[in-house]
Amino acid sequence: MTEQLHLMDLETYLDKLVLSQPLRDPAIRQAIRAFELPDGSRGLDAGCGIGSHTLLLAEMLGPGGHVIGLDLSTEFVAHAQRLAEQSSLSTQVSFRQGNVNELPFDDNTFDWAWSVDCVGHPTVGEPLTAMQTLARVVRPGGQVVILGHSSQMLLPGYPLLEARLNATASTMTLLAEGMKPEAHFLRALGWFREAGFAEPTARTVVGTVHAPLDDGVRRALISLFGMLWGEMQSKMAQADREEYRRLTDPESPDFILDSPDYYAFFTYSMFEGRVARE
Ligand SMILES: C[S@@+](CC[C@H](N)C(=O)[O-])C[C@H]1O[C@@H](n2cnc3c(N)ncnc32)[C@H](O)[C@@H]1O
What we know:
By secondary structure, this protein is α/β, with parallel strands linked by helices. It has eight helices and seven strands; from the N terminus they run αβαβαββαβααβααβ. The protein has one domain: Vaccinia Virus protein VP39 (Rossmann fold, 3-Layer(aba) Sandwich). The protein is globular, with a radius of gyration of 19 Å. S-adenosylmethionine binds next to loops.
């Protein structure tokens, strides 16, 4: 029973990653461009999920480069491998199962490492452990970059409702309550410093969408509404729940994604540092 449930959760999770691609990929491309990958270099995508960013990284690196995608989930790794085989980049990427806290690579294996929505997430473990492990496998002078989804405005015209939905969601997640401020993703500069990285910097990457929305972005936004707020509807005040459903249910005559004025944005916070030279 537990195994069945686990499999169902995993499939749902995988579906969500696939669905989110049209929304997230343009922002991730911006972040990769800002990262300025050295041509022909060798990199690691830690916590690669279904491998879609591993492929984007390889595409930007050009033919001489290679990216290894690593993920804890064997199912995700298998999916990533299938995705790569269907692409023109199959020789420039490879995938393996592993834990970002105990990376199965020799010291100085990579020129750089990258991680999106993985390192720094409370469920992945103590961030300092992952940061030190990444510093070990990247050569001195090489860059480590971690990105995390950090905010969004998805209900234009309803700022108070959106603020209340977010407040209700935060009280229910381990991302806010009872967490030390230093452990929060937005404090990642401190992790870079503590792990001995040089030149830690931060920037914000913004994803923007507006009407008319194509089908992929529309499906991704519907999935995101559900992911952010769907499961805590019982905790919403009744008036907020009704308003939430009126705006986010595709069957509602007031479905917000049908508005010709629809505009939304979300941010990724991106932290970078260089492995200190010996
Ligand atoms: C939110 S997903 C992000 C996936 C991908 N980076 C993306 O942005 O599409 C988080 C991923 O981290 C993986 N993960 C969680 N803990 C991990 C760990 N300790 N080591 C490696 N991967 C881990 C999960 O299996 C999942 O694929």
